[in-house]
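Data card: per-record layout.
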Amino acid sequence: MLLPLLAAVSLIQQPSERFDAETRIKDAIAVVRPVAYRSRQVDWDALAEDMRHRAEGARDDIDMLPAWAALAAGLGDGHSFVQPTPDAIAAWRERYGDRPLMPDAPPRPRPGSPFMKRAEIEAHTLAVGPDHDAELITVPSVSGFGEKAIAYASRLFGAVANAGPRSCGYVLDLRGNTGGNVWPMLIGLSGLLGDGPQGRSEDADGRIEDYATLKEGSAVVLAEQGRGLTMMTIDEWRPIPSLAASPVALLLDDATASSGEGVAIAFAGRALTRSFGARTYGVASSNEGYPLADGANVVVTTAMMVDRNGRTYPDGIEPDQVIDGEGEDAVDAARAWLALQPACK
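The structure for this 345-residue chain is written out next.
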């Protein structure tokens, strides 16, 4: 009876299998390297070495989080990031408190825009001369594809479609729009954009793809994966052909980012359109999530947004008319431009 007991104790006392950080790093790079937009510009050997340094002494998946953060940052696109699971975040904080994943790499400074907290679509009448008005519409961030996003798209479409009889144009205020899901925004503004392909992007190999098309209040996938799928539909849509010829002024600032920039790019090259304000944040790119074996999600920039003329905006969108804020106002500048348009004279 003693021998089986000793054998059991021996098994219990054996050291646990050593945590293999190296294999995890190699596997993560194998996932990300083929899809990253700037993959050809990355020094992968140096990045792998940096990841090993940050994972030195790692005991478990929690200790790998700095390596994953370094992987995302090392892609050099300014838009990729690591998304740990909620449990992993809680475990990290329990173990390391408020220590950042990469204390030697401070995050990019936040934009100085005072408009980032805006959450509601707002429409106001803006006088343009004695006989005409413009609709000033706030276009804030929105996320997801659920009821909230559909309601957002419906409200935005209504703000455009229900302009008063004196209305001769639009001012779309994208200041503070940090992104989220671009499709509720584009569906809501589809009266001004018109039906047709949107969400154009260019991957690292130069391949250009339109992700979806706007069609009668819906966004329908054109991409190979999911082709024909209707992402979202609003019941309130109705055709208003005259909107396609309406002049549109866009207001931009340093917090117009990601999908907010995507809206501005959708209007770039449109006739009777002009932008005002400050250069945007500079993350006009398409991201995709790639889960790792431990559950962490590395969100990778895989493509750059492209406007209808084939232009990308890696450094942000420079407005047609820069407003420096010193004695100038973007709304007033937009109003002055609209007053010169034939529809508003």
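Known properties of this structure: The chain has two domains: 20-100+285-308, 122-281+316-344. The CA atoms of residues 291 and 297 lie 4 Å apart.

See the next section for split statistics.
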